[in-house]
Amino acid sequence: MSTTIEQHEGAASDESAPPPITGSVTSPRPHQRRRDSRRRQSRKERRRTGTIPYLLFGIAVWALFGFFIVHLGDNGIARGVWVLLGAALAPAALVWAMAHRLTPTDTLSGSTLLRAMILGGFGAVMVGGTLDTVVALWSPSVDGGPGVLSLLTAGVVEEAAKAAFVIVVGWNVAKTVRNGLFLGGAVGAGFALYETLGYIAAAMIGPDDQVVNDPTRLQAMTAVSRSIMMPFMHPIWSALLAAAIFGAAAGRKHVRVTLGVIAAYVGVSALHGVWDGGGAVTVDLIRDPFLAELAVLPQHFILIAIEVPIWLYVVRKFGRAADPALPATEAPQPVTA
Asked: What domain range is 159 assigned to?
């Protein structure tokens, strides 16, 4: 009997006791877990862009097409298609990968980046090429090629042209550093596409201004070398400058020329100018074309070692995607007493 009464009293005391705390302070709330899950899923989806498989497939098609149809078949009409494919593969793959990095909070779309690459890149090449031609009139030629002054000032001219068309194609886009990185990279990729197209076409002409009998090998080497270096050239230079421009114009309807924008312009113009003109300066100093060619590649690697950390710093510090707003059904409810 006493045992039964004690059990009853124990049960009553248990019922009156407050419910235990089950870790609500430290464990994430349901909406936080769902948000973290969406972030992980978004990262997985971005990794599954298929960029590398598509690029490798495109390279295989380009190589087979060039060897069998253009080289062995001597198909002159097909050569134009092959040249365009060789110039466009790497820039298109870069913009494809960039488009898959966009998030729902970005005011950009894949079609905007494509338009920036095709139209913005074309306009920048036309304006930049025109200004380059004007500068070349006062720049003495080096060994039949562009003059040192023309090469060293190419960055000043071409970076200004790319920045102008970044503003044109991105006028209605939210002015953020992140959007500037994307748009600048896309315009730079388009610029690289058209410029590489010109270099591949120029490989058909020999030193005597005559068409080379079979320029396929030279054109292929030009396409490969330009494509390998392409991500470290125009896309990264124009991305850094566009990030500075859009960052200065954040929250405003007009462009602001600040000290940061000027510093970015001077910096990328210097990187661009040394990349283009370093070889010509080396030729003038060394007077040995073979040794000068050997010296160009280390110069490029030094420039890459400078610009890539700067780009990574800007991306990590200022270019992070904003957290997507939670739907109303997932918003945390206020705690009421």
From this structure: 50-319
